[in-house]
C-alpha cells in the first residue's frame, strides 16, 4: 500500500517541528494505515501518479490518481489517530462538518 502523504507532511499537519523526531516511528506507521482506510472507504484503487495508473494494464474501472483532497483526508486521519490513541474516550467528540466524511464522499463509489 503506497503512502499518500510523507512523514514531513504529516508532521506539518500535527504542528510538530521537523527536528522533533520523538514520534516519527509512530507517525510513520499511521500514514500507510490511513492511506489504506481511504482507499477502502472510496472503494477504489488509488495510484500515486497518472503514470502508475497508465502502466497498470489491470487497473480497475474506477481507479483514480491521488489528489490533494484525498491527501487532506489522509492528514486528517493521521491527526485524529495521533491525538486519540485509544479505542475509547471519556470525551465527547463531535464530527467537524466538511471534514473527513465530506472529502471521502466526493470520491466514494457505492458498492453494488
UniProtKB/TrEMBL annotation:
Pfam families attached to this UniProt entry: Phage_connect_1 (PF05135)
Record-annotated membrane-spanning stretches: none
Domain of life: Bacteria
Name of this chain's protein: Head-tail connector protein
InterPro entries for the chain: Phage_gp6-like_head-tail, Phage_HK97_gp6-like
